[in-house]
């Protein structure tokens, strides 16, 4: 006698009940707060939210404010440099670690350890290292090079590059770990075939290994890009946006206008622009990762 199948909505009921808190969190916290942010970005809200709609005035003011333009420029510089250098350095370190070197676990721990630190700690450490009064500049001058200058932290033209250096120090280890995991999934037969064919190692990496690791690169790219867009605490710890507004970034702009200046509408408009930037990054990645893949159909069995 055939067993009766449970009513469709009751199938896997325990799993569905367990997923309710997560679904509620997504709906209320993420989707709900996102919609709230977008709606109130079109209002004249100051210290408290009000439904006094002013159209796109907040956005028009946003893109005519020099501080916001500087923050976008800094984010572009920081993003391009941090993204490119972290991917390149992370992959090179992973390739070196993949050579079955001695003390691999020790080196992997050393390179990955900075990622365990908060950006506040990283910022304070690098602020000390790069401050001319007692950092790199002072050490070099004490060695006898009294004309040596290294004002990367105090000269507004170079401050954003100091933040890039600190970010690379903290984040490259994570990229290395992700790349190493991808390299360890490469079949050894591919390396053996490349050696038999006499293909140089660098050509094997460039034309065979890297294309095979495209999903790893895509995932790493999204992780780094999302971190770049919301960078805040590293900037606050190192420079607090200074000197002047030389190292201002969008996340700091949002925080200052929402909590320090009591201009909720302007802060939410800036926050919406940041959200749009993240979506521009995540949506293409999601479409690529979850696109339907063609499956080869067997013919004649």
TrEMBL record:
GO biological process terms, alphabetically, are: transmembrane transport
Could you read off the lineage of the organism from its UniProt record?
Bacteria, Pseudomonadati, Pseudomonadota, Alphaproteobacteria, Hyphomicrobiales
Q: Which InterPro entries match?
A: ABC_transporter_permease, MetI-like, MetI-like_sf
UniProt membrane topology term:
Multi-pass membrane protein
**Gene3D superfamilies in the record:** MetI-like (1.10.3720.10)
Protein's organism = Phyllobacterium pellucidum
Where does this one sit in the cell?
Answer: Cell membrane
ABC transmembrane type-1 domain: residues covered: 72-285
**Name under which the protein is recorded:** Sugar ABC transporter permease
| Keywords from the named record | Cell membrane, Membrane, Transmembrane, Transmembrane helix, Transport
